[in-house]
Specification:
With 319 residues, this protein is an all-alpha fold. It has a domain at 220-319. It is 47% helix and 1% strand. It has 13 helices and two strands. A two-stranded antiparallel sheet has the order 1-2. 43% of the residues are buried.
Length: 319
Amino acid sequence: MNDTVVDWLLDSDPALRWQVERDIVGAPAPTWQATRARVATEGLGAALLARQDPDGQWAGGAYFPAEPEPEGPGQPYTATTWSLNALREWGLDAAVLGDTAARLDANSRWEYDDLPYWGGEVDCCINAFTLANGAWLGADVDGIADWVLEHQQPDGGWNCEWVGGSTVSSFHSTLNVLEGLLQHEVLTDGRHPRAADLRDARHRGADYLLDRRLLHRKSDGALVGPWATEFAYPFRWRYSVLRATDRLRAAALRDEAAPDPRAAEAIEVVRAARGADGRWRQGVRPPGRQWFEVDVPAGEPSRWLTLVGTRVLRWWDGV
């Protein structure tokens, strides 16, 4: 990566810059930690914090806003779960949110069956997000951790359509659960009565994707879907090999493990998407209202995608 691209990445919001300093520049911890602390008071992080409701929620709802959305394609991304996901991903110190966990416990209910927020609901992806967010905020999400273990499919992955009778796993659902399990493990430092079971479930879930080379259906070897090779930020709930290889990287660092050779084909897809200038360009995102824009329009060079793509390739190449 040339200095021009590094300088371009560093000329960014604190939510992105601290990760560039840590993962790309290799800055000393006090440097990137100081930048990370600015997430609470500047840019994207401060703007999203300012939209929190007095009852601890965002947009008055758990997964969907309380007010009906105008008719149109896509789902809204303004409610509590999506806002917590973003703040956690951007590196906000959970202490900044104060008693948010308690306020959500008292005031927030899932749109599904009016279930209590920290108890989770029936969707694998939603429960995975809540598992990670609860561990981050210090809420009791042990019940969700147990639920995740109980709903792992025989093939090793997960599927949000299990309610409808599905017995095979989904790339989307599996990746979301893997991210939730890893975040929970890191944030709790593996302190859970069933920590070994949760870690084993995470490894089996990763094998589900790796056995398919992160790209293909196992039955006929065909590409699992065009979305697997389409990259756009924010990632939200969608699977892509860029997001999947970044999760593999994080898991390998946690496990002190070498890159798994089954990911080689997916890595080359990530590499091929890099432009001659060392940047990745924004793809087309699923539609849906958000509080404000966090990245560039489709077709323009994306700092977020370039950060993720670069650190994935550096990890794989041992740079």
